[in-house]
Structures are given as structure tokens and as C-alpha cells.
Amino acid sequence: MSTWNKTKGCTPWAREWLTSTCVGTSASKDDVDVRVDALNSLDGDVELGNRKGKLITIFDTSVTFAWTGTKGEEKADGLLVCDEFSHEVHDEKRDYEFNVTQSGGPSAVKELVKTELVPQLIAQLAGFRNALIEKHAKDLGHDDATASGAATPTSTSSSAPAAAPPSSGATKSASTTASATTSTTKASASDVRVSLDLPMAQDDLWDLLTNPARIPMWTRSRAEFSTEPGSSFSLFNGNVTGTVVSAEAPKSLVQKWRVQQWPSGHLGVLKMSLSQSHDSSKLELVLSGAPVGEEETIEKGLRMYYLTSLQGLSGGVLG
Fold it and tell me: InterPro entries per the record (predicted)?
């Protein structure tokens, strides 16, 4: 009971997290390149509290990053300022807002900062609360974040950096077979199927699903991902993990796939199929080998954390 009502100061850790997560974020378009160069300041306090056995995240801060960029031979620099980096924004399910300043150089550089760097930073900051809980929960008497009530996604999720997706038409395959690994857990004979029509090009949808720089736009956390067969991936702060079996851009992605809550060693197979129609692209997810009794939970998770999140970027019709 010594940690029943306790607060831990986490501001130094928050500075380290912001630096390691956000500094180095970059984007390029045509002859314009931009990059987050440094964390200039974190003003305010970050704490994790334990109140009668429930974890509470407490942070009311402002964050300033320095950015630099070039357009051809011309250079530019400025600041990215988030005046309200706080738990209230997270609790109200709002996006963090950034003010972008520029001290000199071509206006096209600042525009790329707004359109490409800011969305990446917003997605990265959205993972801060979960990272705070995961890092410090044990110090307040919790075995993991799921015991807190200040939870992370439960039945479908992922997170961290990786490589660019292959060009359209490229085909990769692994010698690994696409069979579910069940250990001692009985696998369901029924497939879980969900689908979504999105008003975007098939190539763009593929990029959203496989490019680690863009995956955070819908997972709201960093992503470790590569389309290289046999490579491991991690999404939603490690709640969804597995390995890539095969990738045929921009049509099909097959993964050995699991959520953290499944029995140890149990893997299903998730196949993502993409197809193009006149004015939209269809994404179909088919998961085979889920643990018996988990089919309904997995279907809800796939809809919520994959389809609904993607739908929020551009609209779309759930199947």
C-alpha cells in the first residue's frame, strides 16, 4: 500500500523521450528538405500519479523544437511550438497544435514543415501518454499499463521507425510459410474478415500501411516496420507484433501477427488485400488462426484500430 497514493516526477525522462522520438524527424518533396534538429525547451512538469490504485498522467507543458530546411542551395530555419502539450488535450481526444515560425529562407520550406513535419510530430506526441505509463508504472506498484485504467489499445495495436516501402509493382516473398503458430492454444477455424473503401489511390493506401514515416498518422504512435520478408514489426506501442511473410506492392501484405494479450507463442496470419476502383481503393483484412473464442474481440479491434483510424484520415465506407 506504500504506493497507493504517490506521484513520480518524470520531466527529465520526458525531455529524453521527446528528443529520441521527435528529433531527426524529416520530410522531403521535390527539391525541399526539412528536419527537426533539436528540442529547444520543455516548459512545465510531467508526473505520473497513483490515486487509490489508478494511474493518472499529469502533464501541462509547452514544447519547442528547432527545425532546419533547404530548397536547392537556399537554407531556412525556424521553430515548431506546441503551447499546449498536456493531458487535457489527450483526454479530450484533440490533436496537438503547432505554431510554425521561420527566420528566413524560401516560403516553400515552411510550407513543407506544416504539411509533412507537423503531422508526424502530432502522431508521435500522441504516443507520449502510453510511453509514460509503460516506462514508470512499475515504480508506482503496477505490473504494467493495463492495470492502470489509463490504458493502451487492447485487442489490436503497433509502434517505432523503419524503412521506405517498395515501389509499385515490386514483389517480395519469404520462404516462411503463412501458417499460424498456435503453441498449445487451439486456433479458430473461422477467419475474421473486415473491409473498408477509402477515397484514395491504391498506391497511397499502400504507403500509409507500410511506410514507417506515415504509419503513425493512423496508429498515433511510432512504428517499426519494413516490407522485407522475414522482418519483424511492432505497432501500437508494441501491442501488435509479428513478422512479414510476403509483400506485393501495392496489392498484398501477409504477416504472422499477434496481439500482446494472446497466449505466449500464439500467432495468427493477417492478410491485407488492396484493390483499386474508379474513385476509391478497397482494403480487406483477413485474419486466420485467432485463439478460439477471440474472434469477436479481434474483429472489433481490427475495425477500431485499423479501419476506423484509416477512415479518420480521409473518410471512407466500412464494409
Answer: Aha1 (IPR036338), AHSA1-like_N (IPR015310), ASHA1/2-like_C (IPR013538), START-like_dom_sf (IPR023393)
